[in-house]
């Protein structure tokens, strides 16, 4: 059994010894991964025929993790924008109110 990790998404990959030295598709992101070792003959099958674990996807092919990443980035952008705009605005309001 050969073990490696995808350089694109970091997913741990295990494959049989017959894939030594061959390039396979990552089961998570489908990025090409070269399995360590020397080539031991013809490749047993193509990456599209390799069994992959199913993951829940929506109609666009995005997983739950993809959506969570997007939601987190939007939340972070709103938070940063709120701090950049909100703090100076609050300080100006206090200055205007105390100036009267």
Describe the fold and architecture:
By secondary structure, the chain is an alpha+beta fold. The chain folds into two domains: 1-52; 54-100. It contains one helix and four strands. The strands form two sheets. The chain has a two-stranded antiparallel ribbon with strand order 1-2. Strands 3-4 form a two-stranded antiparallel sheet. The longest helix is centred in the last third of the chain and has 36 residues, at 64-99. The radius of gyration is 25 Å and the shape is rod-shaped.
Order of helices and strands: EEEEH
Largest sheet data: 2 strands, antiparallel
Structural domains: how many = 2
* Uncertain stretches: none
Our estimate of the beta-strand percent is 5-15%
Strand line-up in the sheet with most strands: 1-2
Structure in a nutshell:
The chain has one helix spanning 64-99; strands at 2-5, 12-15, 23-25, 32-34. By secondary structure, the chain is an alpha+beta fold. The strands form 2 sheets. A two-stranded antiparallel ribbon has the order 1-2. The chain has a two-stranded antiparallel sheet with strand order 3-4.
């Amino acid at each position: 059994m050969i073990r490696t990790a995808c350089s694109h998404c970091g997913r741990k990959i295990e494959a049989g010894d017959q894939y030594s030295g061959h390039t396979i598709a990552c089961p998570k992101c489908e990025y090409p991964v070269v399995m360590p070792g020397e080539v031991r003959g013809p490749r047993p099958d193509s990456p599209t025929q390799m069994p992959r674990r199913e993951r829940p996807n929506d109609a666009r092919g995005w997983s739950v993790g993809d959506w969570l990443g997007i939601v987190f980035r939007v939340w972070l952008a709103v938070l940063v924008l709120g701090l950049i705009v909100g703090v100076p605005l609050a300080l100006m309001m206090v200055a205007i109110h105390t100036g009267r």
